[in-house]
Here is the input.
Amino acid sequence: MLAQAIVDGLKPHFRIDWVRSLIDATAALSTEQYDFAILDLGLPDGSGLDLLRRERGRGNPIPVLILTARSLLDDRLAGLNSGADDYLVKPFDLEELIARCSAIMRRLRGNPSPVIAYRGLVYEPASRTVHIDGNPVHLSARELAMLGLLLTNRGRIVSKVQIENELYSWDSEVESNTVEVYISRLRRKIGHDMIVTVRGLGYTMPKAP
Amino acid sequence: MRVYSLRRATFGALLVPTVLAIILISASALFAAQLAISILRDHEMEQEAAFLMTLSLHEAAEGEKLNVIKTYESFGLQQLRASGAGFRIWSNDLIVAASGALPDNPAPSRTGFDEVSAKGERWRRYVLRHGQMPIMVEVAEPVGMRDELTRRMAASLIGPMLLLIVAVGVIAWWQITVAMRPMMKISAEIDARDSEDLAALDDSLIPREIAPLVVAVNELMARLGSTLEREREFTDNAAHELRTPLAALKIRAQLAERALAGMPTQQEELTQLVAAIDRATGVIEQVILLSRLQGGHSGKDDLDLSALIEEVARDLAPFAIARSQQLDADLSPGMRVWGNADTLAMVVRNLIDNAIRHTPPGGHVSIRLAEADNGTAKFSVSDDGPGIPIEKHGQAFERFVRLSSDEPGSGLGLAIVARIVALHDGSITLGQRYPQGLHCEVRFPRPAGHVNAQPQTGVGQETGAG
Here is the structure.
């Protein structure tokens, strides 16, 4: 039921084979060459994790996206430990599923950072350029790194620690107010209302206005 | 329920017959004594009369005039005869000799024993008449004298008998108490249990009489335990089975939403449908987590509550931003508690989510974590929404009670939150904020050794303007 819905949802974007059991999955994986696999952990003839471990044990590097339930935190961790590349918690957004699958495909094609557009701002990680309403904006390496972090996590709260970690790779010394300093510099260059402060939690670039 | 004390019943069963037996024995002893006294005294009166008669005949033979005879009486006898006892010797109708305070009666008409009333009391009288001569001897004493003898005997009996009753009572009470102790222990053990504890009762030392009861209770506990376990498994399975169809439903709704591109009204319907599916899934997740925590399938760990709250708060903050609310957090770092991460995350998620959902756009939601004065970890969420009227605070924790029909929700939230908090030995309180808003505070005990632990690196000490 869920699989049929996923197949219908992904059909416009990918070519899909759908199998319903561990046996069929093993057979399919050994005969066909797939770009990636979406694996539900609860299968009629066993756990998807067993299949994943077996495939990894055989040296199969195929990227795997795991579908799991929120209350199965342990399974989730076990999934990542057994070699899954990503996971989604049921029920998930179709949009999110397509985005994750696209990300896997991009990584496969060696283009991990696509152009990100956000409220008139366009960021090209490959060329490290930023445009606002078509006009180029000049940002320092650290400001670019911070913008990249916020943009790839847009809609989510990025903690101060996450930003500090990002800045450490550029600056060996991070003062206690370094993050605030860079945030205010970045705001001056791209617009004050682009970044929202959530006191005590971090910063975000909200998804919808 | 009619309650009676087994100890008191046993005590009564032992003491009442004992007291009855003592009373019966005493009564029969006194009755026998009274009879013996009566026989002895009568015999003595006969002897006295016979002696007086012999004396009178002797005097009559000597031609002397009979006169008052002095009698010798012991001090004790005098005491007994204080009411007066004595004799009269009659010749025809004349009193020739008299002694003591005998009533001034006319000459008796018949011989032998009888009882007469005189001077306001009863007298026992014995009359002896000579066969040939007109001499009659009359001996009398008050009946009260004999009663007095019986009374004295009774008085000497009462003390030891009462002492015996008290001694039997004390020993019996003590013995019964000792015998009852295992029962009291079992009763206290059952009393001290919470509803989750279905372990068998300690049956290492129990009286034979209540052994069947203990065995029956233990069997009931075992049956209840397996029933509960089956119940939980069923809940768990049912919830699991619901999860996948719901996920499919959500994808389907979103596919339909995409298919309706360009028809915003119809698309909005499907957006609402997706939101409803998300809520249903949320309830199912809560049910699963709770049933696992209650079933003991989810273990507890020493975990960083600060990090857990921060993660959940960061997860939910975008919803507050989407509602144009000001959300801020002040979390004391490195607060560790002993708990189950999944369910504690649910508590935090529920409370923050409730605050965001019930606060109008533009409102404030504050999340705090600090160490309370008594060392517990104090987590609070406050908002400036409509709040909950004080009289409904108690009701708010009841399952499926929804206090307002304006906002969507299952009503399961606070009940589950309260249950999880209780399973963590914590406490939860609701408060009113001025001028309006709800303040919800949860306290968790902290594992020994972590109270006053050194804070870790500063997380989220941001003070910049939003």
Notes: Residues 94-108 of chain A form the longest helix (15 residues).
